[in-house]
Amino acid sequence: MPQQKIQNLQLMQTRLDKWLEFLSIDESTADCLIGVAPLLEKHIDSLLDTVYEKILSNSATQEMFADLSSIERAKQAQRHHWIYFVLRANFGPEYLVAARRIGETHYRLGVDLRFYLGTYTLMTDLWNEIVLKHFRNDCLFLQKLLSAISRVTTVDMGMTTAVYYDSQSDALRELAHELNFALARAGEFRDNETGRHLVRMSKMCRALAKKIGMEDQWAEMLEIASPLHDVGKIGIPDNVLLKPGALLPDEIRLMRTHPSIGATIIPDYPAEVIKIARRVALTHHEKWDGTGYPSGLKKKEIPLEGRIAAICDVYDALVSARPYKEPWTSQKATHYIQERSGQDFDPDLVEAFLAILPEVHAIQIKYSDH
């Protein structure tokens, strides 16, 4: 199973555990529901007919179904989900896969959440009508059963809705990532760099952030933001940026304005991922000993994301072929990083980077320029 799917299921399991604890769903809940399962299963088809009749009476929801066969498929899927999982409080590993599939499918179909959540409300009302009719003379059991149905329905609604929002967030994150790369490539292509350098460097940044114990979300934001580190090169004239020989002092000063240009291009926006991108662009040429540019920051005055990006950018540039140089060996590049530890680079980050070299090499192989 792909790593991302495993992570998604692990996140869902954590959410599910919290739901089950919060709503006190345990074996007694399952026992209560399983005891009336034959009755509930007997009524599931007529209940779903009522639900879908309501759905199809609305012009906005009619469009979700291409034809009668798609409606029948949806009913059968819902029937299985309710009988096998929800109404048995069967929230094991199979349920996680099923709930994820439902949430992703509804997002892909563009189901309006008003109707999505409204359907759960309608289902709960219909189940309540059924159990009230059959157990009205047993008040204690009726109360227990109504509570159980309400709680398991709430869990299922919460889980599938969370996946719906996850899918929406994933799509926006992918869009942001692609837009970042599109903008970053504009700077890289003018500097004889390759798009693969951006991918490798950003993934190394994420791996290094994870190694030092940063949270997954922060590491992911750094991966998204770090490709914009050299976006400021868009503002450097070609005669300086593409000059094959050594730069003159005035040209060096001009070249060293690209971090500030990058920070100007990237908006000062409250979203954390944009803030990280701006700080990376502005500080990835600062040095641990204070001799870097543009501000001469030293040690931990340099933001963490800038210190991480500095190591990953330099290492990948050294081991990559360019029109003006041959690639260094990993051993030679590693030696350089170690040699510059405490001068150019944060010593603690250098130590962490050396510890993830196998992962770095795997990234280089997977995203090579060839």
From TrEMBL:
Family annotation (InterPro entries): Cyclic_di-GMP/3'3'-cGAMP_PDE, Globin-like_sf, Globin-sensor_dom, Globin/Proto, HD/PDEase_dom, HD_GYP_dom, Protoglobin_sensor_dom
Domain HD-GYP per the UniProt entry, residue ranges: 172-369
Source species, domain of life: Bacteria
SUPFAM superfamilies, sorted: Globin-like, HD-domain/PDEase-like
SMART domains membership: HDc
Alphabetical list of Pfam families matching this protein: HD_5, Protoglobin
Name of this protein: Two-component system response regulator
Organism: Herbaspirillum frisingense
Lineage: Bacteria, Pseudomonadati, Pseudomonadota, Betaproteobacteria, Burkholderiales
